[in-house]
Specification:
Layout lengths: L2 E4 L13 E4 L4 E7 L14 H18 L7 E8 L2 H6 L1 H12 L5 E6 L10 E8 L2
Parallel strand pairs: 4-5
Antiparallel strand pairs: 1-2, 2-3, 3-6, 4-6
Helix pairs in contact: 1-3
Length: about 130
C-alpha cells in the first residue's frame, strides 16, 4: 500500500523519523510521538506539564491537519508521562486543555508512566492514529 510522509512546516524537523505517515486510499494516519517542541525545536513550558500537554496537542493538530484531517479524526492516543502523580494532580487543567483541542471527541486512550523521555526537559509525549474519511 502506498504511503505519504506527513511533515508540517510549522514543526521542528525531526531527525531520523517522520511526524506522520498517511496510507493512501485507506486514510489512516500514524502520528509519531510528539513532545512539547516549538517550531525551532525548543522545549515549551519546562517543568509545566499542563503547558507541555497543550503544546503536544498543538503539534499533533499540525500533523493531522497537514494530512487533511482534524483532531476529531484521531481514533487512538497513547500518552507517555514521566510523573503520573503530577498528571493526576493536574487533571482539571489538563482536561480544559484537552477540550480546547478536541471538544467532546474522546478517542481510545492509554496513559503510561515512564522513567524518562528521549528529549531532555519533556514531561509528556503523545502518539496516535487518525482515520480520515
Amino acid at each position: 500500500m502506498p504511503k505519504e510522509v506527513v511533515r508540517p512546516e510549522q514543526l521542528a524537523r525531526p531527525a531520523g523519523f517522520s511526524h506522520g505517515i498517511k496510507t493512501r486510499g485507506g486514510g489512516t494516519v500514524y502520528l509519531a510521538g510528539q513532545v512539547a517542541f516549538d517550531a525551532s525545536g525548543e522545549v515549551v513550558g519546562r517543568g509545566d506539564l499542563v503547558r507541555q500537554f497543550d503544546q503536544v496537542l498543538s503539534n499533533l493538530k499540525a500533523v493531522v491537519e497537514q494530512a487533511g484531517g482534524a483532531m476529531t479524526d484521531i481514533v487512538k492516543l497513547t500518552l507517555f508521562i514521566t510523573d503520573m502523580a503530577d498528571y493526576k494532580a493536574k487533571l482539571r487543567p489538563i482536561g480544559e486543555v484537552y477540550r480546547n483541542h478536541f471538544g467532546r471527541h474522546y478517542p481510545a486512550m492509554t496513559a503510561v508512566e515512564i522513567k524518562r523521555l528521549f528529549d531532555d526537559g519533556c514531561l509528556i509525549e503523545i502518539e496516535g492514529v487518525a482515520v480520515i474519511d
